[in-house]
Write a structure and sequence with these properties.
ACP_syn_III_C; Thiolase-like; alpha+beta; transferase; ACP_syn_III_N; binds octanoyl-coenzyme A; two-stranded antiparallel ribbon; Peroxisomal Thiolase, Chain A, domain 1; 31% helix
């Protein structure tokens, strides 16, 4: 059976932080830290915190601003992390709430109701608890029958979940799959680290996957095929987990939070992504110039420019390979879905697009999409 994406949804948290605000808070924190530890820094026992700059951030990443689920606490130099009050067990959890917002929008776009869905996948870089699954909480909140489960694949969580949705619809084991990506990254950002404090934002995205025969939305994309690859790397890592308590680890230690070797990631992931995409297209006897739209992972503008240039032998137009980093920053697995959500309706029937994630793991996941007749 032919499998389609029939709707997408994007939920943007109401708060945002500009580079200027973020840098002002970080620099005030760094100056306070350096003053407090002046002697140890002089003796070489500690290294001074270097200062950040909004110009560097824009040039190195393409990021101007990021959305955050809770702004309170992040810019407080005596806290440097969001202040998210714990919710009671009988309240909807934070990530489930984000997921529900995006899911409702995707259902509306796909012209579907809860009754048309029988599988819910919540897939993202982190889940706020291990069980009960967030996906089951979301399923309950939306009144969906069937089954639900969580998935974690960092940057490729969204594409890998779409792959699973594709397989379930193709196999006839599901009639409608809701893939949701509530990317609540801010609790894992080290706002005290000059090299990574600017990279991430919070957002939630969702997509409806179903059989072509049941689709009745205005913009429907056939999934021609999927391709995934993983290759282990420690260059992007977070050590926080349920064993941390038994390890007697300090939850505030740097290795408990997102940390990376950004240069190495850049150098290693770009060629992997280019090779992966070319191989995927060649399965359909296609070459890059035949692809009308590139919905690429959004980690860094220079990375996207390099990958697009390698694929096309020229610079892509802003319309061909849309960038959403300026206002969203890196939103882990949601980035390529945001790029799709904001830039897909203008494709003509028969035109092709490529959705691709790349990042932590390393992991790369792609889907070749073809706009259907409306
Ligand atoms: N302000 C001023 N200067 C700075 C700053 C700053 N904020 N940060 C670094 N510098 C300095 C550096 O210290 C360095 O100084 P020096 O040359 O004296 O050593 C200089 O600027 C240049 O630094 P870099 O070489 O590191 O700069 P780059 O141009 O490489 O840019 C980037 C750094 C932006 C990190 C870049 O390397 C990059 O984007 N690499 C790819 C990273 C990537 O894609 N990572 C994937 C992220 S993982 C993911 O997408 C999902 C993971 C799961 C979610 C986690 C949620 C929390």
């Amino acid at each position: 059976a032919s499998v389609v994406i029939s709707g997408s949804g994007l939920w943007t948290p109401p708060h945002s932080i500009s580079n200027e605000e973020l840098v002002a808070a970080y620099n005030a924190y760094a100056e306070q830290y350096n003053a407090e530890h002046e002697l140890k820094i002089k003796n070489g026992e500690l290294t001074a915190k270097p200062l950040s700059s909004a110009e560097f951030i824009e040039k190195a990443s393409g990021i101007l601003s990021r959305h955050v689920y809770v702004k309170d606490g992040i810019l407080d130099i005596n806290r440097m992390r969001p202040n998210i009050p714990a919710r009671a067990d009988d309240e909807l959890s934070d990530q489930a709430e984000m997921a529900v917002h995006a899911a409702k929008k995707a259902l509306l776009a796909a012209n579907k109701t809860a009754a048309d869905i029988d599988v819910v996948i919540v897939s993202c870089a982190y889940t706020q608890r291990s069980y009960p699954a967030l996906a089951i909480e979301v399923q309950d909140a939306l009144g969906i029958k069937g089954f639900a489960f969580d998935m974690l694949v960092a940057c490729s969580a969204a594409t890998f979940a779409l792959h699973r949705a594709y397989e379930m619809i193709a196999a006839g084991t599901a009639k409608g799959v809701l893939v949701i990506n509530p990317e609540l990254t801010s609790p894992q950002i080290n706002y005290c680290d000059r090299d990574s404090h600017f990279i991430f934002g919070d957002v939630a995205t969702a997509m409806v996957v179903e059989a072509a025969e049941t689709a009745n939305a205005p913009h429907v994309y056939q999934i021609l095929s999927t391709k995934a690859v993983t290759s282990f790397s420690n260059n992007i890592r977070s050590n926080f987990g349920y064993v941390s308590r038994a390890n007697d680890s300090n939850p505030f230690a740097e290795d408990m939070l997102f940390h990376q070797e950004g240069r190495k990631v850049f150098k290693e992931v770009c060629p992997m992504a280019v090779e992966h995409i070319n191989e995927h297209l060649s399965r359909h006897q296609l070459t890059a110039p035949q692809v009308k739209r590139w919905w690429l992972h959004q980690a860094n503008i220079n990375m996207n420019n390099l990958i697009s240039r390698k694929l096309l032998d020229r610079d892509p137009s802003a319309q061909e390979a849309p960038i959403v980093l300026d206002t969203f920053a890196n939103t882990a697995s949601a980035g390529s879905i945001i790029a799709f959500h904001l830039n897909h309706q203008d494709l003509a029937s028969g035109e092709l697009g490529l959705l691709c994630s790349f990042g932590a793991g390393y992991s790369i996941g792609s889907l070749v999409l073809k706009k259907q007749k409306t």
